[in-house]
Amino acid sequence: MVTVTIDGKALEVPEGITVLRAAQSAGIEIPTLCDHPHLTPYGGCRLCLVEVEGYRTLQPSCTLPVNNNMVIKTNTKKVLDARKFVLTLIFSERNHFCPYCQVSGGDCELQNAAYHEGMTHWPLQPNWQPYPVDSSHPYIIIDNNRCILCRRCVRACDELIGNFTLGFEERGARSILVADTGVPFGESTCVSCGSCIQVCPTGAMIDRWSSYLGHEVKFDSTKTICVACSIGCGIEVFSRDNNLVRIDGDWDKPISSGVLCDLGRFKPMVEKCDRIFTPMVRKNGTLKAATWEDALSAAASGLKSAKPKIAALISTRQPVESLHLFKQLFADKLSAELVTTLEEGAKTALLASSADELGKPFESKLEELKSSDAVLVVADDLVLEHQVAGFFIKRNLPKGTSLVVVDAVTNKLGKLANKNLNPSSGSFEDVFVGLSSAVAKLGLANSKKNISAEALAKAAAATGLATEDFLDAAFLLASATNPVIVYASKAFSSALRDFASLINAKLVSLKGEANSLAASQLHLDKPFRPAGVNAVYVALGDDEITQKMAKEIEKIPFKVVQATYASALTAGADVLFPSTNWLEQTGHYISADGHVQEALQSLKPAEDVLSVRETLIKLAERLGFSLDENWSKDVHSRVAPVLIEK
Amino acid sequence: MTKPKISSDWMAGCAGCHMSLLDMDERIALVAELAELRSTPITDLKHPDESGVDVGILEGGINNTSNEEVARQMRSRCKILVALGDCAVFGGVPAMRNFFTLEETLRRAYVETESTDESGKIPNDPELAVPTKVRAVSEVVPVDVFVPGCPPDADTIFYVLSELAQGRTPDLKGDKLSWY
Question: What ipTM does this complex have?
Answer without folding.
Answer: 0.93
